[in-house]
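Postdoc handover notes: sequence design on the structure in folder B. Input tokens:
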């Protein structure tokens, strides 16, 4: 899911940061259901998760902590 969402984002002209964020959201939503394709979300659902989702950043791994 992550790789497909990343390719989709790049083809749509997203920045690397935005593509990674979108890909993470799509993969996270996919993990909420059983099976490899059971939780495939829409792009709108991923964007909603990005907007409302809580962010956790560890200072050792993020410059924006």
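Designed sequence:
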């Amino acid at each position: 899911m992550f790789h497909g969402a990343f390719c989709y984002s790049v083809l749509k002209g997203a920045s690397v940061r935005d593509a990674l964020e979108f890909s993470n959201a799509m993969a996270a939503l996919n993990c909420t259901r059983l099976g490899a394709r059971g939780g495939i979300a829409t792009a709108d659902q991923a964007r909603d998760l990005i907007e409302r989702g809580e962010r956790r950043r560890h200072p050792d791994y993020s410059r924006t902590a």
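Context for whoever picks this up: Residues 16-30 form the longest helix (15 residues). Don't rerun without checking with the PI first.
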